[in-house]
Design goal:
Structural class of chain A: mainly alpha
Number of domains of chain B: 1
InterPro entries (chain A): NarG-like_sf
Order of helices and strands of chain A: HHHHHHEEEHHHHHHHEEHH
Radius of gyration of chain A: 27 Å
Distance between the termini of chain B: 46 Å
Shape of chain B: globular
Strand order of the largest sheet of chain B: 6-1-8-7-9
Oligomer: heterodimer
Largest sheet of chain A: 3 strands, antiparallel
Strand order of the largest sheet of chain A: 1-2-3
Helix content of chain A: 55-70%
CATH class of chain B: Alpha Beta
Keywords (chain A): Membrane, Transmembrane, Transmembrane helix
CATH topology of chain B: Alpha-Beta Plaits
Strand content of chain A: 5-15%
Number of strands of chain B: 9
Number of helices of chain A: 15
Protein name (chain A): MFS transporter
Protein name (chain B): 4Fe-4S binding protein
Radius of gyration of chain B: 16 Å
Pfam families (chain B): Fer4_11 (PF13247), Fer4_4 (PF12800)
Helix content of chain B: 10-25%
Chain lengths: 351, 189
Amino acid sequence: MNRLFRTLNKTALVKAAIAAVLVVIMVLIGSRNLQYFDPALIAYLIGTVFAVFGIAYRYSVWIQRPPTRLYWRRSMQFLFSRHFIPYFLRSIRLFFRNIMFQRFLAYRGRTRWIGHFLLATGCVLAFAITIPLTFGWIHFILKPGDDITYYTYVFGFEAGSFALGSTLAFIAFHGLVWCSVLVTAGVVIMMKRRLTNGGLIATQGFENDWLPLILLMAISLTGLGISYDYTFLGGKTYQFMAVTHAITVILFLVWLPFGKFFHIFQRLAQLGANLYKKEGSRRGMAVCPHTKKAFASQTHVDDLKKITRELDFDFSKEDGTSHLDLSPEGKRSALARAHFRARQESGHFFG
Amino acid sequence: MPATDYNQEMAFFVDMQRCIGCHACEMACAECETNGQESMIHVNYVNRAESVQTTVQVCMHCEDPACANVCPADAIHKDDFGVVHSANTSRCIGCSNCVLACPFGVPKKMEEAELMMKCNMCYDRTSAGKKPMCATVCPSQALFYGTREEIERMRPDSVPVNSFKFGKQEVNTKVSIMMPKGTHQLIVE
């Protein structure tokens, strides 16, 4: 326990605490001092606050690593430059293309993309529904004298209404059912890949590859169970369904900062990497002394020289140049030439 | 999940002077199931204007991999067998840091897929006690996978070397390169 406290990252701890407190403040504001907060959801709220704390802590530790810190700083520097408008628009476009639609996954495999898209969309929609409900930001009421119209309140302000029994009501009240269907379909596709792809079978692990899928499946099925119960069983198994669903969701929330799901937050760095590449190529490309071809931005090569030094790697040469000035092909050729010379000097190329 | 049966007695030995540029290893590499039909091995002319010499490059699986150190997404890891794995697909953000930092010029960036991929010594095969695809098809044994005793018997005038110097940086690897007897390190200038 002492070791745990000794190794705590103070900067991350402060940021995580601020993030958690902000969530609580937002809950108090959004629910009008807990007036519209649903006490039945208290366990979900505690799980969410813990998840926010954990994610903020891990994210903060993560961006303190030299290469990540550099990417973070460069991304901010390039975004808030005189090219702000084109870079901002580019980032928005890539946010929808690569984060919301995960289009880059289509180039890793079409079925994989479809599976992941279903999973991710189901999860994002479910979060968009459950977080405002859990935080008390949104609630529905019937007004006196009108028992067929449901009024929606957001942050305590009336934001719309719809008739009970209408198509809109059916779609809205079954929102999480649709999410569960999407997630379940996605999980089945991803599980099939993991059961049949030889490469995945060789490299996968339980904790990082199977557990997330099992957990998502459990959340979806127990969630569907609640709906099934009140639609077809008259609420007879409600207690069981509600408790098992709460357990799976809270496990998911508590595990969010530690396991595979953290990649959801890391993925945003892809936008920064894209901006870095774009601005780097605008500033000028590095030309390989061996192939005489441009292979990366000079900014990238120079930054990597700094990062490698910071990480105790020193690829610099006596003549002031660096092994990192070479392109990948140039490095392979340099190695082959050194090997050739060593063989030549020994007098034997083979044997 | 199948049990891992990694044979630690077996090792990878490379001798690029024996490479005849036939590209058989490239074709075989694409059969490795962990690569998804992408070839990860590199075969290229060393200096086409002067010589027909080709060179072949697999991942050398460094003891302290520069690629993993410079990865901003913690996507590259070395396992207990010393195998440095291809980027974790859920984490890799396609920044190319590893591509540019690897002193051997090994990782490849798949542009559209925003993913780094590299040789993981055919982990689907080596973890089951089999040889990597490239080493099974190399006709000149520029790529050889076997025991140290086997390679010493086959190449009595050579010695496996797994220490390199790039600039001021010493790099030690799991994969060895065949060098003249008495050599302890390959210095790349």
